[in-house]
């Protein structure tokens, strides 16, 4: 079975959101006909109720077309509470949970298609991501051992041959423009991701789209941003991920501001479990629109 996922992240509802892009995606999603939509965090800019309310409306609109898997990013965490509640986490995600439910690491199984599990890497100011770089204190993520073991167990219990898709917010590979890793202790995090049993990773955070391979076998889709904060002045972008029995295809849909629409651009194809990559011509017809 072929599984098709829309992978979007870093919406930043609030001052940095681009409503034209949001509405364009809402309008085109039914034509893409995905099996699921994955939102990889940073739905808000300052974890404010108004921002989450607009984000919830967006999620509900997408859910009319396909199931939605959504996780919090670092901007969705009320990290400023940490000095007052040094050993508690509930308050950090209180607003997020109010609007999106108690489960901040949701799992979705597409019958006969794939199992999608998420891992929490956005912890605000935490021991696992402490850094001497002040601007990164509440920005860096980390993948705790407990999260790794939980995901590994979930993938281990899934049916044999079913693609395992891991969703997390922070980029697991170094940004091409930023030259930054999203995760603290990133070598350890990469090993854990490979050992989790994941076939495909969907991540974000860096505001630049990308597709590559981790550990020679795990395909990594990094979503861009649907906001005014695209890195390097690049067009905003979301990814369309097609998982076949033998290959994974990642198509970039880039924003055309003058026409007010997203348009399919180049596609990268990876061999499942082999990491072999092939780049297809820009403007290729997206797999989702080719469905009969």
Structural features:
292 residues, alpha/beta, Purple Acid Phosphatase, chain A, domain 2, 7-stranded mixed β-sheet, 6-stranded mixed β-sheet, 25% strand, globular, disordered C terminus
Overview of the structural elements:
The protein is an alpha/beta fold and 292 residues long. The protein has one domain: Purple Acid Phosphatase, chain A, domain 2 (4-Layer Sandwich), CATH 3.60.21. Helix content is 20%, strand content 25%. It contains five helices and 13 strands. It has a seven-stranded mixed β-sheet. A six-stranded mixed β-sheet has the order 4-5-6-7-9-8. Strand 4 and strand 5 form a beta hairpin. Helix 2 runs parallel beside helix 3. The chain is globular. It starts with a strand and ends in a 12-residue tail after the last strand. The C terminus is likely disordered.
């Amino acid at each position: 079975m072929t599984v098709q996922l829309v992978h979007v992240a870093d919406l930043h509802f609030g001052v940095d959101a681009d409503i034209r892009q949001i509405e364009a995606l809402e309008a085109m999603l039914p034509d893409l006909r995905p099996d699921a939509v994955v939102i990889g965090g940073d739905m808000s800019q300052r974890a404010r109720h108004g921002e989450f309310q607009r984000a919830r409306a967006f999620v509900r609109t997408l859910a009319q077309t396909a199931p939605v898997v959504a996780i919090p990013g670092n901007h969705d965490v009320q990290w400023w509470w940490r000095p007052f509640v040094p050993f508690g986490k509930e308050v950090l995600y209180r607003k997020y949970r109010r609007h999106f439910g108690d489960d901040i690491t949701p799992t979705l199984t597409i019958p006969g298609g794939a199992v999608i599990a998420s891992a929490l890497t956005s912890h605000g100011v935490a021991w696992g991501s402490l850094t001497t770089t002040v601007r990164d204190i509440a920005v860096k993520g980390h993948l705790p051992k407990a999260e790794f073991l939980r995901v590994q167990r979930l993938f281990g219990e899934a049916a044999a041959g079913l693609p395992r898709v891991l969703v997390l917010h922070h980029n697991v590979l170094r940004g091409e423009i930023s030259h930054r890793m999203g995760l603290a202790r990133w070598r350890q995090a990469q090993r854990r991701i490979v050992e989790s049993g994941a076939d495909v990773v969907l991540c974000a955070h860096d505001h630049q789209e990308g597709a590559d391979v981790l550990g020679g076998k795990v395909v990594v889709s990094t979503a861009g941003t649907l906001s005014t904060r695209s890195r390097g002045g690049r067009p905003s972008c979301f990814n369309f991920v097609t998982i076949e029995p033998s290959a994974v295809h990642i198509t970039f849909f880039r924003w055309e501001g003058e026409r007010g629409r997203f348009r399919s651009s180049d596609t990268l194809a990876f061999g499942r479990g082999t990491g072999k990559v092939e780049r297809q011509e820009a403007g290729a017809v997206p797999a989702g629109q080719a469905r009969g």
